[in-house]
Write a structure and sequence with these properties.
The protein is an alpha/beta fold and about 250 residues long. It contains 10 helices and 15 strands. Strand 10 and strand 11 form a beta hairpin. Helix 2 crosses helix 3, helix 5 packs across helix 6 and helix 6 packs parallel to helix 7. The chain is globular.
Length: about 250
């Protein structure tokens, strides 16, 4: 079994049992405890488990779904920093839209537990991350579930979203470009994102540096629509300044 297969098997073991000890996992998978710790560090970095007292616990019951949806995400440390910085922009928002994708999922995880929020999302992983929080009301947009993304997206999702007034929308994208704006490779997902932009008072794009300069088929928003862009330090400062000149504040972490 290769490392990725072992980690997925460990995640399944933790998810079904509710917890696991490092020693038990080492015996079960016939590897050293140090190997288990490295594997658990990777899973924790992906936001799928949490280490505690020599063992591990699942972050949410949707951990397996998140793993199958996101695969083995790239740039995970950068995405974790971006998500934490984006969550700090919450301000006085009480109603929040959270997009589908791994970085938005991490933003959901980073939102405060100690205040009342209403979160609207098409992402089943985001629902799983927030559903057990006592002070968070979660609204899942209706429509057909897209298996590859574990998210809803069709005219029903767009129609439901059109009836809301959202304080803050956290958006992801396949790419962001000074020429073509915010783009998605899926038309149905792009329509949901475009509607979120229309109904939100504030809009924040969060994405790694590799998203910049990239573009895809479906254009759903403009750079000037955004209040802020949160990204990593891999984006050159000169390029970050060019995006800033188009309107949004650019935060690099």
């Amino acid at each position: 079994m290769d490392a990725e297969g072992r980690r997925k098997a460990m995640l399944e073991r933790v998810w079904h049992a509710g917890s696991a000890e490092v020693g038990r996992l080492a015996e079960e998978f016939a590897v050293s405890k140090e190997t288990v710790r490295r594997d658990l560090n990777v899973l924790e970095g992906h936001g799928l488990v949490r280490r505690k007292h020599g063992g591990v616990h699942p972050v949410a019951r949707t951990g397996l779904e998140a793993a199958s949806t996101f695969g083995t995400p790239c740039h995970t440390p950068e995405k974790s920093r971006i998500a934490a910085a984006a969550a700090e922009l919450l301000g006085g928002a009480r109603t929040v839209f959270i997009d589908e994708g791994f970085t938005p999922y991490l933003i959901a995880e980073a939102l405060p537990h100690d205040r009342q929020l209403t979160v609207v999302t098409a992402s089943l992983a985001v629902v799983g991350a927030l559903a057990t929080r006592r002070q968070t009301t979660v609204l899942l947009l209706g429509g057909q579930v897209r298996p590859g993304a574990m998210a809803t997206a069709d005219h029903r999702a767009v129609h439901m979203l059109s009836g809301f007034v959202i304080d803050l929308a956290y958006l992801g994208a396949h790419g962001i470009s000074r020429t073509y704006g915010l783009t998605a490779h899926d038309l149905a997902a792009g329509e949901v994102k475009a509607q979120a932009i229309r109904v939100a008072r504030r809009r924040v794009f969060a994405g790694v540096h590799t998203k910049f300069g990239a573009s895809s088929f479906c254009r759903f928003g403009e750079v000037r629509d955004l209040e802020a862009i949160v990204t990593g330090t891999g984006l050159p400062c000169a390029e970050a300044h060019r995006y800033h000149l188009m309107g949004p504040k650019v935060i690099q972490v």
